[in-house]
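REVIEWER CHECKLIST
Item 1: Sequence provided? yes
Item 2: Single chain? yes
Item 3: Sequence as submitted:
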Amino acid sequence: MTLTGRTRLKIWLVLVVVFVLGCATGVALTGLYRSRASGDRPETRERAMNERFERMRNELSLTEQQTTAVRTILDETRNEYRALRTELRPRFEEPRLKARSRIRALLTPEQQKKFDAMVAQQDAQHDEEQKSKH
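Item 4: Structure as written out by the authors:
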C-alpha cells in the first residue's frame, strides 16, 4: 500500500470512529434526557414505587397478610411525608424571597424587569411541578 493509500485509510478510519462515537454519545444523551424528562411525572413515580414494592414482596416472599400490612405502612409513611412537606414549605419560602429581594436591589430598573419576568416564569414552573406531584 502506498503512502497516499495509508493516509486515506487513516483518514477514513478516523472519520468512522468519530461518527461511531458521535452516535454513541447521541444515544446516551437521548436516553439521559428521556429519563430526566419522564422522572418527574407522577405516573412514573407511582410505577417506580409499585415496582420497588413488588420486588420487595417477591424477594421476601411476603404472605397476603404481610403484603397488606406492608402496603398500609408504606401508605401511612407517604402521607406523613406529604404532611411534613406541607408543614415545612413555608419555612423555605422566607429565605427564597429574601434572596430575591437582595438580588433585585443590586439590579438596574431594566434588569429588575427582566429578573421579575424570570422569577415569575420560575414560580409558574414550580407551581406546575407541585400540581403534577399531587
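Item 5: Key structural point noted by reviewer: Residues 40-133 form one domain.
Item 6: Recommendation: ____
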